[in-house]
Design a protein that fits this description.
Elements lengths: L9 H6 L7 H6 L6 H4 L1 E4 L3 E5 L9 E5 L11 H22 L3 E6 L15 E6 L6 H6 L8 H9 L14
């Protein structure tokens, strides 16, 4: 077996411009015509949902409060409730849109817990199917993605149309 696995699509991220700010705060203020480029599916008064650009599995969603806080306890109760309602609605829609057989839903609070963006808490919702885990992550530290991100976005885009909030503009 070769000791190299090529992932040339990562160069876009490596060489691309980096924001000094918070992506979730940036997403909340985007005009709807910029939502598709940033994979934003819905922005509500207290929370938003987007696709993870570096997913664990296809259609990996992130739900974040609009308020920039690191801990759940730092959210006022109404914003916490709005965020958790959006987690529930996003989970329902993800399962329906992808025919997922299960979901992983989790929050990594703090860098030590695995948070890639530790300063702005967010919830991961990952669709799962029987047999979707295989030897590749264990043997080669590689994840197999069965769908392009843009295709996942198009699959999920209309799933949030019935919820109040700011939706992406049609292409």
């Amino acid at each position: 077996m070769s000791d190299r696995l090529w992932a040339p699509w990562r160069m876009e991220y490596i060489l691309g411009p980096k924001s000094d700010g918070c992506i979730f705060c940036d997403f909340a203020g985007l005009p709807p015509e910029e939502h598709p480029a940033k994979l934003v599916l819905l922005v509500q008064p207290h929370a938003l949902v987007c696709l993870n650009r570096f997913p664990f599995s296809s259609a990996h969603l992130l739900v974040a409060p609009r308020r920039h806080v690191a801990q759940l306890a730092d959210l006022p109760l109404d914003e916490y409730e709005a965020t958790m309602r959006l987690v529930r609605e996003a989970a329902i829609r993800l399962k329906q849109a992808t025919s997922a057989e299960g979901l992983n839903i989790g929050i990594n609070l703090g860098r030590a817990a695995g948070a890639g963006i530790a300063d702005h808490m967010h919830v991961h919702i990952v669709a799962r199917w029987a047999g979707d885990s295989n030897f590749m992550p264990v043997i080669a530290d590689v994840r197999i993605m069965p769908e392009y991100l843009a295709d996942s976005y198009q699959r999920l885009r209309g799933a949030f149309d019935d919820l109040e909030g700011v939706h992406p503009l049609a292409d």
